[in-house]
Write a structure and sequence with these properties.
With 207 residues, the chain is of the alpha/beta class. Helix 1 runs antiparallel to helix 4 (108-125), helix 1 (9-17) packs across helix 5 (149-168) and helix 4 crosses helix 5. Helices cover 39% and strands 21% of the residues. Strands 1, 2, 3, 4, 5 and 6 form a six-stranded mixed beta sheet that branches. Helix 4 links the parallel strand 4 (93-100) and strand 5.
C-alpha cells in the first residue's frame, strides 16, 4: 500500500462524519471553532481515566486484564498515527477502548475510528484485534464493537479516499443532512450550508 500522506485516527472519524473536514484540515487549513463538547469531553476523559484505574473489568464482560492509558501508536505502513484512550490486555486478547462524550449510541464515525485503532494496534503489537469498546461518558455505558474483515477494508478505503481529497485538492460535496453541521467546528466555512454562505465564499477562495 503506497502511503502519500500521513493521517491520524481522528481523520478517519472526521471523514465519515463529513469528508469536507479533511479538506479544511489539509488542503485549505482554516481556524476551527472549538465546540462545547470538545472542552467538556477533555475534562471528562481525565476524570474517567482516574476512575478506570480503580475499577474492575466487569462492565467490559472480561474476567481479567490490564489497562494501559494514553497509548501513542504509529504505523509507517498505514501512514497512520493515533493516541488511544485505553488498551485492555486480557488472556482473551487485546481490546482498544475509546472514550466518547455522548449520551447517544456511537455513530458509524466512532466505530470506524475504533477500528482504525485496532489496525494500528495490530501493526504495532503484532496481535489480531477482534473487538473493542466505545465508552459513552454521558451514560457510563460501554458499547462493544466487532472488528470484522469488512470493517477493516472500509477503514483502508477511508484512508485512501481522504488522501485523494488531499492530493487532488478537491472540495467534497455536502452531506445529505444538515443536522451534523450544527455541531461542526467548520460550519462557518461551507459554501452551501447555513447562514454563513457569503462568509464561507470569502474565506475559502481568499486563502
Amino acid at each position: 500500500m503506497a502511503v502519500t500522506h500521513a493521517l491520524t485516527v481522528s481523520d478517519v472519524k472526521q471523514y465519515v462524519y463529513c469528508p469536507r473536514i479533511i479538506y479544511y484540515t489539509y488542503v485549505v487549513p482554516v481556524e476551527k471553532k472549538p465546540s462545547f463538547k470538545m472542552s467538556v469531553g477533555q475534562e471528562a476523559h481525565l476524570d474517567l481515566e482516574r476512575l478506570e484505574k480503580r475499577r474492575t473489568l466487569r462492565r467490559y464482560q472480561l474476567a481479567d486484564g490490564q489497562r494501559s492509558f494514553g497509548l501513542l501508536l504509529h504505523s509507517s505502513r498505514l501512514g497512520l498515527n493515533g493516541r488511544l484512550d485505553c488498551l485492555i490486555t486480557s488472556t482473551l486478547g487485546l481490546y482498544p477502548v475509546d472514550y466518547k462524550h455522548t449520551c447517544e449510541p456511537p455513530g458509524l464515525n466512532h466505530k470506524y475510528q475504533l477500528a482504525a485503532y485496532a489496525l494500528l494496534i495490530e501493526q504495532v503489537l503484532g496481535q489480531t484485534v477482534r473487538a473493542g469498546f466505545i465508552y459513552a461518558l454521558g451514560t457510563d455505558r460501554v458499547w462493544p464493537v466487532e472488528i470484522t474483515p469488512s470493517v477493516r477494508r472500509h477503514v483502508i478505503n477511508i484512508l485512501s479516499a481522504a488522501r485523494r481529497i488531499i492530493a487532488e485538492q478537491r472540495f467534497p460535496g455536502p452531506q445529505r443532512s444538515c443536522g451534523r453541521c450544527r455541531d461542526c467546528e467548520y460550519r462557518n466555512y461551507c459554501l452551501d450550508r447555513g447562514d454563513h454562505q457569503k462568509e464561507a465564499q470569502r474565506v475559502v477562495f481568499l486563502q
